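Budget justification note: compute hours in this period were largely spent on complex prediction jobs such as the one shown. Inputs:
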Amino acid sequence: MLEIKNVVTGYGKVQILNGINLSVSEGQVIALLGGNGTGKSTLLKAISGLLPVWEGSIEFIGEEIQNQKPNVIVKNGLTQVTQGKDMYPAMTVEENLKIGAYTRNDKGEVAEDMKKVFDYFPVLGERRSQLAATLSGGEVQMLVIGRGLMSRPKLMMLDEPSSALAPKVVLEIFNIINRINKIEGITLLLVEQNVRMALLLAEYGYIIRDGVIHLEGKSDDLINDDNVRLAYLGGTVADSDSAIA
Amino acid sequence: MELLLDFVIVGLSIGIVYGLVALGISLIYSGLDIVHFAHGEVYMIGAFIGIAVVKINGIPYFGALVIAMIITGIVGVFIERVFYRRLTRGGGGYTVAGMGMIICGFGMSVALQNVAYLIWGASPHPYPVNFGMPIFMGNIALPKPYLYILITAIILMVVLHTFLTRSKLGLAVRAVAYNKDTSYLMGINVPFMISLIFGVACAMACVAGVLIGPINYVQVEMGYLMLLKAFAAAVVGGFGSLPGALLGGILVGVFETLCAGYLSASHKDIYAFLLLIFVLMIRPTGILGILVKIKA
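Corresponding output:
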């Protein structure tokens, strides 16, 4: 569904990505892992069209999308869910969700999808006419995921949905992300620093380092890989194995 | 007492005109992250375009107002696309590129003034419309243009408010004003929205110009003082806030007219800035001042 081949890009003249290869098939959950400053968000920006791609190609459903405008890419069904802080604080919850459906013109179905979002996140339904600025950190994260759903994506890229949240809330959000993948059939590219959680959810993982894919493999293999354990996990994996059903 | 009422009504009308220009400045500030120093000249050009349209036989004053609005809006979009786009692409606001934008705004102001001078000359132009007798309210004779300003402003405010809060496009305008990258990811065509915002802001300035034309003469240098007073209005109301811009304009207008009436008319232009200083001393963010990041 998404084929990334040898992508090179950066900011201004500073090269950040040095040839990334990555592929996502329909229905999968793929984890993209790595520490701070390794190029995770840069790759997302390049896929979304916010950053020009210098070299290489990005193919989405058989069509090359590198260097297309972001609004065109969203319309084609590739939506990026940014980190929670990127909601619109001066708008209500409902308005935030409406903005998510900006590319769609089918009013009736948009309303239905909004109901669906409120089913996944009941707390958003309770606060639908409240300003987004009044939401808690977890609720804001739910809001941006819901906003992403409103565009009816075929593939949704989630940028660190667990950042700066309490462990309990992280668990809740990952549960819902899992359901979104299973029930809605939306393919997910999950960018995370919370390596353990991401690998529990994903089938396949990529670990990015210094702008290249450093390691890749099935989640089970990665979890049991000694290098990964040492570098990213620490502690045992068994405790949280049963956390996501 | 009647004199006071007269002053207040006149001040209110003049203030709304300041408010309309301030509204444009605030819109551009929140949408493009730049302070537009050529907005006074857009107001002047708008007034001249209004005269040109009014002179065409068979077009009534309010029809001319709408046509002039559209033409000035298109001129604004042209200015933004051709001259400002390259600079704002590098980021506006407090960055170095934003500094370049300020210089560019001053340059545009000089350029527009000289273009207008070439076309229309330096002499003041009267508005070629006849509104007939003033309206009498008791002993007050109120010339009709003042009343038209009030009516037009109310209609315009309702339309703009409905547009921003009820329509999908208006929602997108507010989204772009808050965060351009995020809005791009929502599928909003951000460059188009920026042009739209700039065009609407210029159309607002044009309305101000066409409305004040019948009261004052229209001349090439009228933009300079208007810009300063509109800035005072925008800052008094709270920079970046749209209701604040209008409120600030009204306060400046009424304050100015009252002081000119009761204190000294020859120092008329000082009072706007006196009010500005008072407000900044008491409330540095302006009356409806808001957190920097929650704009529009």
